[in-house]
Design brief:
Distance between the termini: 39 Å
Strand content: 15-25%
Oligomer: single chain
Order of helices and strands: EHEHHEHEHHEEEHEEHEEHEEHEHH
Structural class: alpha/beta
Radius of gyration: 19 Å
Number of strands: 14
Helix content: 40-55%
Largest sheet: 7 strands, parallel
Length: 349
Amino acid sequence: MKILVTGSSGLIGSEVCSYFSQRGHVIHGIDNNQRAVFFGPQGDTSWRLKELRETLPSFNHHELDIRERSKVLELMNSLKPDAIVHTAAQPSHDKAASIPFDDFDVNATGTLNLLESARQACPESPFVHMSTNKVYGDGPNSIEMKELDTRWEYADPTYANGIPETFSIDQCKHSLFGASKVAADVMVQEYGRYFNMPTCCLRGGCLTGPSHSGVELHGFLSFLVKCNIDDRKYTIFGYKGKQVRDNIHSEDVVRFIDCFFEDPRRGEVYNLGGGKKNSCSILEAFEICESYSGKKQSYEYSDENRIGDHICYYSDLTKINEHYPEFKIENSLPEIIRQIVSTQTRRQA
């Protein structure tokens, strides 16, 4: 199988490349290291591209910007891939406010360029889009909450398992990043429903793992661990550090993508995170990180929360488990943090 991966040097994209290459597939990656442009040297992913080139004999790199419509169409027509995984994005809702045109052009227009190119070149090839839980905006904050010692939790039993795909994306504040991802998400659904293409949107929780180049504006666990290992002060933005996220290892994300390739559906949406079992607050993440690094987390607190930020969010995995019962999350939260600590420690050395 020939697989086209956008954002191939990023966390999920590079994991997709490694996973499917090791299973004998030919990989074509699109990446232009735009993270270094958005976030500076800390966001640079050239190290990961170097690893892919050195370790994956079936990997082919294409230095291409997905905003360049004619070049995207040209590449899609020349490759006619058997499957497409679209992970390229401007990923920060904080950064989006200062670069609104770049954010929308990458997230929304870039996705449309890929969809239309796929429709023209290979309409039966499964198309997996990495969306985000930010498409729900701050709507989850309207759910009745209860404050516990180290975290916020849903008080409404309707959400005992987390946020389902039926949760409204309307009448709430998204951040410009969330809005551009909504546009892409709905377009991926529409190409599936209107053109009958095998597409799905994966509305990720916190996607993470040891390959993540986390920065303050994007990459919660990776950046938190990096601050701990480097003895840097971590800033908590609001909600007493009790805001909750569910975390899923990049390997588990790719395992689901494999399930979708085997049994694709059309115009589907799935909330793909670690679920309640892999959820933690910032304070709880500090404690787990400290248990592996042996270092106390240094931090400061800002009363001002990030715009559109979730107080508590974890994915309801009911739908994904019903559609794909063979899919299981294999990496626990402590194991994820252990791996990140181990990798960050080696890099520092």
